[in-house]
Structure formats: structure tokens, C-alpha cells
Automatic annotation (TrEMBL):
Protein name: GPN-loop GTPase 2
Organism: Zea mays
Keywords: GTP-binding, Hydrolase, Nucleotide-binding
Job of this protein: Small GTPase required for proper localization of RNA polymerase II and III (RNAPII and RNAPIII). May act at an RNAP assembly step prior to nuclear import.
Superkingdom as given in the UniProt entry: Eukaryota
UniProt keyword Lyase, yes or no: no
UniProt subunit comment: Binds to RNA polymerase II (RNAPII).
Coiled coil: none
Length: 212
């Protein structure tokens, strides 16, 4: 990193770009495990990799196309963001953008759900946040929350409404929950397997054709 004058995020982008250019090496490492193993790719959480740059998507697409993999994206969001209306809207936008960018079967997850009460009370019940229900209620709460005073300014209020409308119009984002204390990993893994297994062959063909 010091050699190329890169910070942590820039270093990750550089590494992903390097991996994309040397994808044959990764394929060779994976081949022994293809037939009888599940593969778990644990990516860093930096937004740059999945939203601002295309190299992570290119790596995934090349693996799908060349190795006939069927992958499901599991996108983790810290549950405590639900306690701050502004941060929750940002998390929704990030989740939606990642879904559209990766174009994979996708599961959004509120992680560390067991710690959420440490960050204050939720304005609504948990189902409101997991199901991404009517965001007009959230907009009202956003204007009342002292932490979100800047969103109450007329220009920001209009922008927030339009962003919430975009999320509502797509209607794609909802969340599963992950509580390491309550053994929710197994159901989450099952959901991911179902997403992958029941992806129709014609949908998979369309996905791979877009990668040509």
C-alpha cells in the first residue's frame, strides 16, 4: 500500500483489480472444491468494491460464467442503523444499489440484532424495518428526531422523500435477521441455499448471457 500510496480502501480496490486480472489463479485454487463443497466468499464491507467500482462484480461474473457457479449474495447491515432514521434510509439505498449492481439472487441481513437495544429504542417494531414498510411514517419520524435535524430543512426533506420513493417503487429490499445467540445462522444458510437452488435455468441462462 505504501509503495502505491494507497489508503485502506484504495488498497482493497487495487487488490480486487489485481485479482480480476489474475482470475485464472483463483479458478485453479477453487477447482478441487467445486464438486462437493459449498463455497463462501467473504468480501470486505467497503462500499467502493460493490457500488463505485466494477471489479468485484467482474470477478463474481467470471467465476459464474467460467466455472458454472450459482451464487447468492448475502449482504450484512448492522442492525443498530435502524435506531437512526437517516442511517436506516442510507442502509436501504446501499442495499438496493448493491442488489442492482451485482444482479445476483440476494439476501439482505440485519446483523447483530441481539445488540440493537444497546443503541436506543426503535421508533417502530422490528417488522417495520425488516419488511421495509411504508417509509412515509419514517419520513415523519426523521423530521422529529433531533439527530436528524438537518433532514428537516426543506431541500433535504424533499430529497429524502424522493429517495424513499425510489426505494418503495423498486420494492426489492427487505431484511432477514441474524442473532448469533439465537442460532439464526442455519435458517439463513437454508434461505441462501433455496435462493440458489430454485433459480430457474432460464434465469441463470439470462444472467450468464449478460456476462458475455
Amino acid at each position: 500500500m505504501s509503495e502505491h500510496s494507497l489508503g485502506p480502501n484504495g488498497g482493497l480496490v487495487y487488490c480486487m483489480d489485481y485479482l480480476e486480472k489474475n482470475i485464472d489463479w483463483l479458478e485453479e485454487k477453487l477447482k478441487p472444491f467445486i464438486e462437493d463443497h459449498y463455497l463462501l466468499f467473504d468480501f470486505p464491507g467497503q462500499v467502493e468494491l460493490f457500488f463505485l467500482h466494477s471489479n468485484a462484480r467482474s470477478v463474481i461474473n467470471k467465476l459464474i460464467k467460467k466455472m458454472d457457479l450459482r451464487l447468492t449474495a448475502v449482504h450484512l447491515i448492522d442492525a443498530h442503523l435502524c435506531c437512526d432514521p437517516g442511517k436506516y434510509v442510507s442502509a436501504l439505498l446501499l442495499s438496493l444499489s448493491t442488489m442492482l449492481h451485482l444482479e445476483l439472487p440476494h439476501i439482505n441481513v440485519l446483523s447483530k440484532i441481539d445488540l440493537i437495544e444497546n443503541y436506543g429504542n426503535l421508533a417502530f417494531n422490528l417488522d417495520f424495518y425488516t419488511d421495509v414498510q411504508d417509509l412515509s411514517y419514517l419520513q415523519y419520524h426523521l423530521e422529529q428526531d433531533p439527530r436528524s435535524a438537518k433532514y428537516s430543512e426543506p431541500a433535504n426533506r424533499k430529497l429524502t422523500k424522493e429517495l424513499c420513493d425510489v426505494i418503495d417503487d423498486f420494492g426489492l429490499v427487505n431484511f432477514s435477521t441474524l442473532d448469533i445467540q439465537m442460532h439464526t445462522i442455519k435458517p439463513l444458510a437454508f434461505t441462501a441455499e433455496v435462493q440458489e437452488k430454485y433459480m430457474k435455468d432460464d434465469e441463470f441462462a439470462q444472467l450468464t448471457s449478460r456476462m458475455q
